[in-house]
Amino acid sequence: MKTISAMTPWSTVTLLSTLLLLSGFLATSASASPSTQFCTTSTEQDVNTDLCFAVASSHNETTNANDLSLHLSARFPDRNTGWAAVGIGSLMQGSLMFAMYPSSTDGSIAFSIRTTNAHTAPVHLSASSLAGKKGPDIHVTRKWLDESGYSNVQVSCFGCDRWSGSTLDVMSANQSWIWAWNGEQMTGSASEKIGLLKHEDRGVAFLDMSTSYVASGDLPMAQVSDARVSSPAATEEEPKVHAHSPFGLVTLHGFILSSSFLALSIGLLAIRSGLARSFKYHWVIQLVASGFILIGCSMGLILTMKHGGHFRTTHQWLGILLGLGVVVQSWLGWRHHVIFVKIGRRTAVSNYHVWIGRVLVVMGNVNVAFGLKLGHASKTKYMFWSSGVALQLAVLIPMWYFWSRGKKIMDIVGAKESNDGAERGEYVDVGVEEEAFLVGDEEEIELDEEQHLHDKKEDLEIK
């Protein structure tokens, strides 16, 4: 028969200590889950990026959705300068974004939920509106400024995979996240709705979400480690250049409109050329160019609809005004001709036609530049645009200069008047139909027209 010897007091203490340590370890392991983390610092001159974010997730058995914990940490250059943001997915379009920036109160941090329907500045989303639309329920768990000067925001996103704009797969080994940084903008505001200027640095990170996923239980709190290094095996994709197909809708939209506004300037040159058929050249060129402008504007509307149907940029609104302006301008040109045929002189309609035409040419060229910026155009495309503008200025400015001194283009190039010039296509006196478009001093133009009619009357009397 075996006997159990009595335990000494010392052995009892040792056993109890071991059990306590083991239970503490197990409790800690059960409540904590390793976060998946991505960190990046600046690699370019004059860019001071210093950003980390960590994520952890769990399945919510009550809602049958997946919850997400996010810790965003960044060190801004100044207490009132800069912003940092991360978003779900690989594109800005449709991404659920989390942004933070220094608040107006010293040591405090502002947090904002945002999204966008295109590659444009994201707009603010309220947490209440998201929850009301059966979307994610987002709460700020904690905001603090640590001893190292890092601004921190810890967020809980309940039902985060309910966001419809982009895909969140908490079990993915390659979940994409976008990140962006601006270290120059003066923020320093407690408002969640301040406009964010364009990022100075950006990228796409791929995280192994499965390493920080808990199948059941409470949502673990994500925590950026003190080491501030990407783990486990988080990778980054090189920022994509927003290139467009050479024959795609975006490229055709830009090419057609930039060429059409250049053609409008050629039409202006035609009406002041002094050629026998200058009026015909003018209306044919302007009519064709106007038609292509309307086609280009229609392409712009199609692109807008493909990107969510929202009009949020100056380029879009100017495009609408230009399209309407071309229609009005064409009608004014036709109306001027009808009136002129009846009364033989210029009217207010002529002035409206001339000045609206000038405004359209200027606005059109400016809006092409806005489009190039919006489409992240290459330097080559900017070079072609600036060359086109320079060409227009090189032709139109001298044309207006010489016209103000009573000369036409054919006068400058040395062509001579001839009675049979109309048949040979040479320079002849074009009459006042073309002059009706030339807006200058009112009395000067009327005197010119009266003198021209008087000269014709004398010619008829002599004959």
What do you see in this structure?
By secondary structure, this protein is α+β, with helices and mostly antiparallel strands. The chain contains 11 helices and 13 strands. The protein has helices at 9-31, 127-132, 249-271, 278-306, 314-343, 348-374, 379-403, 409-413, 421-424, 432-435, 442-462, and strands spanning 36-41, 50-60, 65-74, 81-88, 97-102, 109-115, 123-125, 137-145, 151-158, 175-186, 201-207, 213-214, 235-237. A 7-stranded antiparallel sheet has the order 7-6-5-4-10-11-13. Helix 5 (314-343) runs antiparallel to helix 6 and helix 6 (348-374) packs antiparallel against helix 7 (379-403). The N and C termini lie far apart (155 Å).
Along the chain, the helix and strand elements come as HEEEEEEEHEEEEEEHHHHHHHHH
How helical, in percent, are the residues? Answer: 40-55%
Mean pLDDT: 80
Unreliable stretches covering 5 or more consecutive residues: 1-7, 12-32, 416-433, 436-447
What portion of the residues fall into strands of 2 or more residues? 15-25%
Order of strands, main sheet, comes to: 7-6-5-4-10-11-13
Radius of gyration: 35 Å
List keywords for this structure.
463 residues; alpha+beta; seven-stranded antiparallel β-sheet; six-stranded mixed β-sheet; 11 helices; 13 strands; disordered N terminus
